Amino acid sequence: MLPGLREVYEAYVRAADELPALPGALQAEVWTSAQLGALEAAAPDLRGRRAALADLMMSLRAAGTPGAYAFLRVLEAIGPVEGRRAAGKAADGVRNLAEPAWLSALGKVTPSQVWLIQEGPLDGDRLICEFRYEGGGDLHALAVRLAHGDVPSEIVVVGEVPALMAAARQAMQAELCVVQPYDPKAVGGRLRAALDTPGGLPRDCYPALAIARHRAAALPGG
Questions:
Q1: Is the separation of the CB atoms in 151 and 197 below 8 Å?
Q2: In 3-state terms, what secondary structure has residue 123?
Q3: Which of 39, 76, 121, 157 could link 87 by a cystine bridge, Cβ 3.0 to 4.6 Å?
Q4: Do the beta carbons of residue 155 and residue 211 sit within 8 Å?
Q5: What is the pLDDT of residues 16-59, one digit of tens each?
Q6: Please, which residues bridge with residue 149 across strands?
Q7: For the chain, what is the radius of gyration of the CA atoms?
Q8: What's this model's pTM, rounded to 2 decimal places?
Q9: Domain residue limits, the chain
């Protein structure tokens, strides 16, 4: 649909060669989210984003490499909702490839603790949402800073959750911030609305946007 981007899709296919060697589902999801973020940040509108995503999936299926196959499976798990079924069908068309050990864990996360960190009236709210994969492994967190009007100003996926929370509690003891538990259902609603802010987001938010939307959807009340 967008033949002018053919070289871009080919670059994605080449980059995907590194995907099967990543150590776990979280790293694969973060990697794929970054690729999707670059695509969405460059898209002029929703229609253009969807066309580019469809073209990319066709290019990945045509390539048929282990990396392209893994890319499609991650898209099926955490990509834009409207494209997940198509990504799965495209991956089904790629046969006889060895699968990374983490493939079956993709997207299968359970929410845990949710925290609100407030550093000052001008800094907005920082929401820390903890998740684990099935079986209780790979604790990680989605950290989103919401500025005035609940517009995201920072989105980060954190792998070292204990270190993050220890630093937050030290800052609280020094009276630099307030840290308190937050109702997961309430924060889920805030995040889902914030991550679909009309008019786009700060460019630095795009690399983690796909995984953030997936995790926000996993919170209660979705």
A1: yes
A2: coil
A3: 76
A4: no
A5: 999 999 999 999 999 999 999 998 888 768 888 889 999 999 99
A6: none
A7: 18
A8: 0.92
A9: 3-104, 108-218
- 64: amino acid identity, one letter: G
What residues have CB less than 8 Å from 87, skipping those under 6 apart?
57, 72, 73, 75, 76, 79
DSSP category for residue 213: H
Phi, psi of 176 (to 5 degrees): -95, -15
Q: Any residues with CB less than 8 A from the CB of 104 and at least 6 apart, and which? A: none
Rounded-to-integer distance, Cα 30 and Cα 111, Å: 17
Question: Which of 60, 92, 20, 35 lies closest to 207 in space, CA to CA?
Answer: 35
Place of tokens 């066709």: 58
Q: Are the C-beta atoms of residues 104 and 116 closer than 8 Å to each other?
A: no
**Span 150-198, pLDDT tens digits:** 899 999 999 999 999 999 999 999 888 999 999 999 999 999 999 987 6
